[in-house]
Amino acid sequence: MKKQPLKALALISALVGGLTATAVQATEVSDVLKAGAAKVQTAKTSQTKVDRIADQTDELLQEFKQVNKQIESLRVYNSQLDRQIDSQKVMMAELKSPLLMLRSLREAFRHSWLVCSLGLKILLRSTCRLRKAIVLMQLLI
Length: 141
Known about the structure:
By secondary structure, the chain is mostly helical. The protein is built from one helix and no strands.
């Protein structure tokens, strides 16, 4: 019978050892699951940051494209203005010559008018003297 208590003791030792090993394994599995959950949470946070940065990048890209379109539109507008200014310069040059001619004609007309008006005054004075002379001659006759 001595063997029975030894068998019982061996069985109890094996059970206690197995339970301890199971408890240790359960603790290790729990730790592994906790570490995995922490990594998953870290990955979710990182993915959220990556998604936010990707959205910001898309917004900046759209803004960049829009600004480039505005710049191109302004270049076209400036080109049109340059052509219009060049056309107006040509028109001003074309109008300058006739304006100079008109100014010259106006000055010549003024000068002629002055000469004519002076001649008319002289003629009127001469006519008045002539009438006076005629009246005097008629009185004398």
